[in-house]
Amino acid sequence: MRKLLVAGLAFAVTGCGGSDIDRARTAVADRLKDPDSAKFRNERQVSDGGICGEVNGKNGFGAYSGFAPFFAMKRPDGFDVMIDSDLSDPFVSKVCGYTIASPKTKEPEQTKEIPGAQWAVQVASVSNEKTAEKLMQDLNVPGWKPYTTRRDGRIRVFLGPFSTRSEASASMDELASKKALKGFVLRYQEPEMSSK
After folding, report:
1. Which member of 21, 27, 86, 159 has the greatest number of CB atoms within 10 A?
2. Given the DSSP bridges, would you call strands 184-187 and 154-162 parallel, antiparallel or unpaired?
3. Domain ranges of the chain
4. Ramachandran bin of 104, using left for φ above 0, alpha for ψ from -120 to 50, beta for the remaining angles
5. Which residues contact 148 (CB under 8 A, 6 or more apart)?
């Protein structure tokens, strides 16, 4: 009888549904891909009855994805859960006291140069001679050197040659902004027909 009384008293103290941390764990686990795989650590109660901690669970491939901070905000009918898996949520960071990850800035890609190589920007590949001539006239502006080559019955219109790939890329960008033409950078080929 005494054991039954102690068990009943323990049940009354913890409440019908367990502690807030236990109920928060259940709410957090329900947000995971595989709720049964949830592992928890560093749980603690914060102001207003909210629970902070870290959770790890299995992803769609069946592998654990690593511990992520969570904040479970207590509501009358349960918990609202926020899991900050990429460490970028300023609210959860502030409430739970961790530092958010700084955004990764992509390093500008360095253009690899080949010593002695020359480069060109191919602007178009057309079958009509008049179209090629009109495009050549349109591209004949200071700083640009248009030329053409023939291959497989097509006339290819280029700008160049440029001594570096970076210079060719800059001209390609300029071509897009000034003439709304998309080109691409290639190794320079000697013109097979004279440009007019």
Report:
1. 159
2. unpaired
3. 2-96, 119-187
4. beta
5. 132, 136, 155, 156, 157, 158, 191, 193, 195
First to last CA, the chain: 109
Report DSSP state, residue 85: T
CB distance 196 to 136 below 8 Å: yes
Q: Are 183 and 121 in contact (CB under 8 A)?
A: yes
Architecture (CATH level 2) of domain 119-187:
2-Layer Sandwich (3.30)
186's CB contacts (< 8 A; 6+ apart) are 119, 120, 121, 122, 158
pLDDT in tens, 17-51: 468 899 999 999 999 989 999 999 999 998 777 99
CA dist 149 and 192 (Å) reads 5
CB 27 within 8 Å of CB 55: no
Which residue from 23, 21, 60, 59 is spatially nearest to 41, judged by alpha carbons? 21
Say how far apart CA 69 and CA 108 lie, in whole Å: 32
Please write the tens of the pLDDT for every residue from 77-132: 888 899 998 888 888 888 888 887 766 555 555 556 778 788 899 998 888 899 88
What does residue 99 show for φ and ψ, rounded to 5 degrees? -90, 130
> DSSP class of residue 62?
S
